[in-house]
Batch of 3 targets.
Target 1
Amino acid sequence: MPVNRTAKKDEMAPKSMKSKKNLKIKTSSMLSNSISARWKILLYLISAWVVVVAGLLAVPNYNILLQPGNLFTRNEIPQLPTSNLFTHLPSAWLIWAGFLAMIVIWRFVPDVKEDGRDISPQVSRFFFWAFMIVGAYLRLENPRWPVGNFWDDHYYVISDIRNIIDFHMNYILFPFGWREPFYPYFSALIWLLIPQLTGSVVVLVSSTVIDMTAVWLFYLIGKELGGRRMGLVLMGLGAICKTMIMMTRFVYGTDTCVLGGALAILFFLRVLKKPDILHFVEWGLALGFGGYTYVPFRPWMPVMLGMVWLWVLSDRKERRFNGARFFMGPVLLIVWALVFLYKNSLLPNQNFFQFFVHPIVLDSLFLAVIWGYVQSFFNERKKGFTKLFGWATGAILTGILMAPLLLQPNYSAHVSDISIFSPKFTAPGEGWNKLWENIVFTYGLFFGQVNHVSRLPAIGDSLYEFLVPVCGLLGLSYFIAKPRWIPAYMVVLFLISLVPGVLSNGPHSFRYASCDLPLLLIGAWGISRLWLFVHQVTANRFAHIFFVIFLLSGWAWELGQNHKLLWEWLHQQADTSLIWNQTEQELPNHRVYLVEHGDPVFYTPGQNILTDGEEVYRMDDQNAIDLKPGDAQKDLSIMVYGGDVDNQKKIEKEFPNIQWNKKRIILQGDGPNDIPFLWYAEVPFDQIPEKNEGLFFVQRVSPWTWLRRCYGHYGLGRGLILYEDRVTRWNDHLPPPDKIDSGHSMRVSGDWNVKIAGDYLLKMTTANTTWVFVDGKKIINVPPDNTVKVSSQKISLTPGIHHVELVTTFNWERQVPKLVVIPPDSTVETPFDDYAAINSETADVNSLSKAK
């Protein structure tokens, strides 16, 4: 029978359409079920995270964040409050349960490209600058407020900076702790660019620039890993990171290793993305720069070299070796490891490894490496350089940059002298016990409470703020659920960053500075991946906005908490900051005197830095107050160490009606029987006698006298005033020998009444480091090279009053260097102070006051 194809087609058409319709329904149903399943996974994941958050809020150091007021007024762990929901929750159980649940749930989250569904450049730019402004403000707020010292004097490092500028003491390792050079030289550059700043502000500005540069690099690192979204998350965490801000405020240069680590990780990631010679060179330079930052960066170098070497060998094409590649690859890595262990005193004295670090053996290995590198260069330059050659280029470049440091005889002193295995601190056989104690202490310092810290944070607070473990556990659970080698590498870097602390006899906070970036990066990775998962679950714009508001709310809460904790810590006053705070309250209406006390020390050399540019004096056996006509008649403010009874009685004998006030530092009790740290009293000006006897007396002097001030070992003519008087001739009645001792300096200033217009030649012959200024302009500069020089300068002056200032240090002669002048109407050299005195005797005092 003939087949009616048209009819059959018509008959089949509805079945086909029905099939398509069923397929569409089935697909829609599956998609709906998939979306519904993803919503469930997201809700489960967030619920598990909330459980972790609840557990962390039950931990005492985070629970106290929920309490109002300042809980850190004493140098002890605050009592745990019992007035909130989280206090009695089982913290450990909740944290572990939530963490393990997150690991399981993350495994059901579909994989996606980390930088998918990224933020727009416009939005990213807005938040970038918002985070930069917030971060800079937190670090620079009230910049003159100091941090109290508890161990060694951290402000002493500013003397190194001044020595670079004033005396050209250009060290590679600075003797005070054999510290790395980047921070002092960078701070000196800032001071040269902004000379009007005082020392304490200069180091805060340089520390802030370093820290905010690191925060900017955080953005670039995050962008390399997960696009602009991860970059902003990492940057936001870094901008408000309490640990980074506190280390910046401490102005010790410890934050430099965060900058070094950020540069090393950034260029490491760029090498992975494009492993050409240029990127390997950049990576080598970054790694070498890190060696000049701060000692906790040191363990990163061999680990980074080794990890990149392993990554190179993961490429099968790179695993072919001839003699040249063998020396350029494995032997170079072994040489680096040996040098690192040897120069950081990590090799036992009696060990077969000592054979390999013998100069002859090491030199032979170096020559073999160079031979292999040169041979590989000629073998590969035509075909294109391999990854192994690029790695060797970076490693050799790092070694070249590090050579000036490694060749310093004291390079290992900072490590070996404070090691837990050093016989100076640890009995034989006790090193491993000390290591375990340090590990337990470090965990408590990071995320709990410990009974003692070195300077930061406040006792009872944890080193890392609440957001760090909250975000870090989210990121770590993701890494475990979906293991990849780069996240694992970040965890390894964190563990390696613990080494400088746990291997030291005093595992204080600064030795863990390199932990900041790996910890924050792990947390940022977790937040960014959760944010990306929200995009995978829904395309609803309002849901995305709600999630962003949720993240920003948590960030803003932490910002407020960190700001509060920072200033509670800053107000925990120790000796240096307490004295500074009291002098600031007394100035400028009082003439402030500090009474020196030997043991225990009342004030440290840091007081030189904090009083820089202010009229704060050291009290002497006799204290003349020379006043010109019109000078302010200020009351006295005298500050004495709490236990210095002898000097208190001496002052009371001079001023029987004196009333003492007391202040204590954070380390002291405030009971009725506790001796305070500071006694201070005010003496009205009208009680100061006008006769040349007694402890204090006033002398009326001519307006044409020269003001002489003596200073100690802090730069040239800076810091606490050790002695002051007024004289007609610069070397009349020189100050006591201890005031003009070697290394001390003097500032002489006054007004010169110029009678004749014209060119004046000023000339000086001395080896003392000396500056001479006329009307604020430096005209003579005798450099600090300890050789006698004749320095001269011709200046053109108009009739009238000109301000002259001479600053000198007593490194050659113990007097003010002789300055001579040849006036325009003469060819005779006349001592400048003689010439100025002759011209000033007939000067009109009224014209002087008008000129001023």
Target 2
Amino acid sequence: MRPVLGWIARLILCNPVLMAAAHAQVDWQTYRHDSARAGMQPFASDLSNPAKVGTLGVGWSFPPTSNGVGAFLASPIVVNDMVFIGSQDGYFYALDAATGQLKWQYPPPGNPLKGSCGQGGNGTWGQYGIRSSATYAKIGGQDAVIFGAPDPDPRADGGQGSARLFALTLGGGLIWKSDIVAHVDCRPGSVPHERIAFSSPLVLGNKVYVGVHDAGDDPIQQGRVAVVDLSSGNLVPFPYASTGTLGDGTRGGGVWNSLATDGTGVYFTTGNTRIPPCFTPYNNCTGSEPSPNHGLSMIRVDKETGNIAWSFKPVPFSRDGDPDWAAGAAIMSTSCGELIASVQKDGWSYAVNAGNGSMRWQFPSTGLGTAFLNAVHGDDDYKRPGAAWNDVLIINTGGESLVQDGIGKGYGKLHALNACATTEQDRVRWIADLGPPYSSGGGYSVGAPTVTGGIVFVGTDQGHLIVLGDPSVVPAAEKLCSNIHYSPSACPPPYVPVWSLKPLADVLMPDHGSIAWLRKEAALAKGRVFVGTLNGHVYMIQSGFSDVGTIWRYTGTPCSGDSCPGWQMLDNNPKTISIISGGDQLFQLHNDGWIWRYTGTPCSGDSCPGWQRLDNNPKTVAIVAGDNQLYQLHNDGWIWRYTGTPCSGDSCPGWQRLDNNPKTVAIAAADGNLFQLHNDGWIWRYTGTPCSGDSCPGWQRLDNNPKTVAIAAAGGNLFQLHNDGWIWRYNGTPCSGDSCPGWQRLDNNPKTVAIVAGDNQLYQLHNDGWIWRYTGTPCSGDSCPGWQRLDNNPTAGSGATPARRAAAIPARVGSGSTITRAPE
């Protein structure tokens, strides 16, 4: 299948008539790539090359600091070498796709797109910010991006959180704000609290479509589709309503997803209508069914009139336990015709014929009779759309064992389904179990998959980007039963052994933030991957990190010309994400949280036996060492000190807890001292008293400056870096109340992006790649002359993650050296 992909790309690139379309397609212009919402990048690149994806690594981070800018619940789009994404905090960002540098944000700082209404659940009625991806469009001949958000302008229903669509130029200028498309009334006893939080705009012809839903059925709203004119943002009449007649007060059937189109029809799925929901065993249920009722349905409407062409509804009103059809529709162009495919919250997946809405297949194939009706159809977590690649649908679904084993067995797994198979035994193509250590294995543990050339990309709630290869592209070695209730050796008909895929690559996000939330996906554009995390960072991942995980020790022989023989390999494990030394000891941290100590035996060929395991906790995000003391930081802020007992089997008891503060984002150690940095900029020094139960009193505050983004320690010195580039050295005076005078300024250069320290030496890296060493003269007023330039290589500072930036500085790794960021 990959040769066909490459042939199509070459054909288009050689045909000037098709060049403009090709340029658009190598971008990622909307949620799920294009208006079909298929989640597929059709053009070949390094991302469709199995030999290249094994070398993926994080190329840059926005922002470059450990503190994020607000949770990214939306996913990025990539257009014209720019990345666009909105945050839950109500800001829309434009980044340089090559470097991650911020080009502009909308609106300016201090004026977020969040309403005043904090009432209600699921992110509140009016303060949910930007939770869905933007969409590219041409408006009046100029390139533009369109996204939805609450409008705090008092003219928008009093600024409570009624939502509009916003159209901006690629330079950040406002083209228009649409008429209000979703209304909020926060007054006591009021009903309207419509939202467009989970629906990315669909641009079709001269119109923009967006789905309207509610905030956690609090109370439930009437599902509908809002349509505005592309050139002006003015509302266009569109009479579709999921229940009753538009505007008649009937409730239910929210459109929680991004509408799709094949250019003729508009497709989407709808939510529940029963108030209150009716839960299994479906006895004594109350409430009357609205008429008409197109909730819990997959729907095609006419793009002009909004009239329903067909509606497919597998779960009847009598079994409405809130199994919203939240995932939305993916349009599949297959060898057996055009199909519309999706998964419902209850774990059943479907493909229907695009022309008439007749069911092509159900998975698992229980039919819609008694066994199906008596199963659980509730508020469960199959809410993410699938990716369509030729005749294959790749999706998080309940699986063949759904009825036998319950709703949760499919969580944390991807199924590849043969969409054109004519028998049940041929339906499942492969299964990938992405539970621990890659994810929690729960309902929100994997995001929406994306695919290019048979190579599949999916994020997890533990911050892993997992890459898989279809067996037609990358041969698989293991099998399991298509019904995971059974072993491969005892797999009864109609089930059959199918391929069990293992990751080709596993890239851990430096902040360990989830990339698996409701509308999270990996955007694939021009051979690079772009993701946003719930911890507030955007990352670009690219190939070319061929030596990831290889550790070398310098043996003393410098380079002679291009020959640099003076290195001895100590390990070659691709899971390694950071190394640190303290005293005469060397330690490494793996992306699964395992910590290892080097015992002195170098590699012999591919065998590297010289490592002893000290811990196996998947929460570990950083390690530091000083004076032969080893410390680790967990993603919940807990800090631990190694007490000397290595692991025995799966038991790793040799750790003592020193703190349990969820604000902790970084630690540093040197000469018997341990320091921590909080996400509010506060810096603390450990005074020697470990935790007793939940009480961890052994910390003294040294600073409280919210500008602090990094700390480094060496010898008897502690240093900090501010987000404006200022560098400070601690002079020994701790805080007294809110006064923290104990800091001396060493530099004030806004180009500074990272600092490291070692053997009483301090180094800094600038965003232009220049590296400087501190020579000992502190600042006097605005003059900071005490720095000597060591290098001017632009690749060191441009587009690097914090850990790589720090690694680019030539500080000798020795006693007292530190890592100032969570490693990648």
Target 3
Amino acid sequence: MTPIILPIAVLSLAVGLVVLWANPRRFINWIFVFTSFLVSLWLWFVYNALRAGAENQISPSSDLIVWLRANAAVASFFPWILWLLKEAVITPSDRIRPVVLRSLTWFLAGIGLATLCYTNFFILPEIEDGAAIRGSAYPIFMISNAVLYLLLLTQTYQQLARETGIKRIELQFLIFNAGIACLIVMLLNGIGYYTGIRTLSRLSPLVILGFYVLTAWAVTIHRVFDARQVFLSVTQRVGMIVVLTGGIYGGSVLLQSIVPTPGNLIISIMAFSTLAFWLDRHSRGWLNLNVWQNTIAIRQAALELARREPDPNKLVTEFEALLRGWCQTNYAALLFDSGEVYVSTNIEFAKDRTGFRALCKQGWSTPESLQRLRPEPGLIDLRQFFTEFNLGLTVTAPRGSPTPSLLLSLGVKTNFRPFTYPEVQQLQEVAEFMDNILARSRLSMQARQSEQLATIGLIGASLAHEIRNPLVSIKTFSHLLASRFDDPEFRRRFSTLIPAEVERIDSLTQQLLDLSHPRRHQMERISLHKVIQETTDLMLARAQEAQVNLVTQQNATADTIYADGGAIRQVAINLIINALQALEGQEGERNITIRSRNSPNGSVILEVSDNGPGIPPDQRARLFHPFVSTKTKGMGLGLAVCADILHEHKATIIVPDIGRPGATFRITFPCPPPSS
């Protein structure tokens, strides 16, 4: 143990200097340097006491007592320095003098205990069997130190209830870590002395170093950690080490009588390595230490919002509201690249600012992390940005990119707690996830806008073509009306053609209205056969006029569906009209067959078939899109209207390739229908 104490002392002093270099403007960093010096001095005295104890076994010397007294005297000031650290956390740097003055009580207590160490009641002046003999004041010294540490912990606990934010977290780490470490050291020293197990006392430097480095890391590193998070993480890792090492040793001993060496060791290593790996993966989930595990809920919520809201601008607003609730803050903003600045509704961040470059380099930042970092122009500018908009966190997406596509900024939490580094990691994941969703949403909107522009062009061309013909007829008859009004044949043709052409235009506009503003359906349990019979009765005269055989085959044993009867009748009429138009140029027999049947799972299937020319393969994929038609006349809206109606009924319509001439439209109604 003795050889490693000097390196530990040097390392402790180096840690303090690194802390000071990180940010020399912080009062707590100066106190930490002084603490490092005190710890290094104590370790130096411990080293000399151990060395003198070893030499005393060979040749009795009084040096052992000198170093033991010095060791205890320096330790007497640890409560005072811990109190200074505590006050440095909660006191602004411009009020150092009052803090130093208030610490005099603790300093005087340290002087009193240090003075006690140099009395013969603490350590007797003589050496017995090569070891120093503690006097009656030694228990008083130990109890007094314990009381001071307990008083310090009590004060800290009371102050924790009054503090918020980063001060509360630093107090948790600083005092509880250091105070518990000192209590453990005292306990090890006391047990080691009274039981004669000197090894326990010699573990004290390692305990001090471990807690000291952990505290320095937690208080000075720019990544803020919550005490609970660190405790759980350390406990989980230590537990895995204990399971692995203890399991391998215990397993090899148990297997020794069954499997010869080294087989027992190999089996034990394989078994407990697998167990440790399984426990590590699952225990991180049990203790909520996985970043992805904590983001599952918000990722699912973001996906659900993306499904409901196709507009990326409205989706940004929904995402910001989602972030405000999930992060417990009153403000959340997604900033996007607009050329020279990143901008949201009421916040902007210029690219030419030094703070922007510092943010991109780090990938994230919080006011607390900036406070702990060494002041640089970029970090100072970034701190001004946070102060200007009262922000608690900003992350870039994608992380580490010099030109991020998204900045996610959050206001200060409502409970004033800082964003810890695990939370920063979670929000980086969420920011990148939302960025991907918004990118896809923008691409989808661009595709929709392109399709809408194309649709507008088709509408214009189709309307011009379809409306022009009846308008030309109306215009022609209007011009001839004055000169041929007395002609009975003209008046007959006029009275017949004009209403028909107007009806044609009205039908065209009605189809457009049905496509853009579908009516609400009155869903109820109806008989599909009854609807089909009414439809065929309605269309029979038109079919006979076109010399088409209209046949129905009602083969479904169960024909009840949950639908709007009028809407289904409109679908059937549109399909029959399409079939009639497809058969207009057909030579020979012309047939339209309407048949119903049940599928194996009980669904009701309706098919409308004709023996016309069929549908070209290149038009099947877009057959149910608006303005797609296989006919020379018509705008191609009928099938689009049918598809929209059936979609509202949760029914499907397809055009199967059945291997025979003509076209067949197959509609499948879900079964069983919902209860009315």
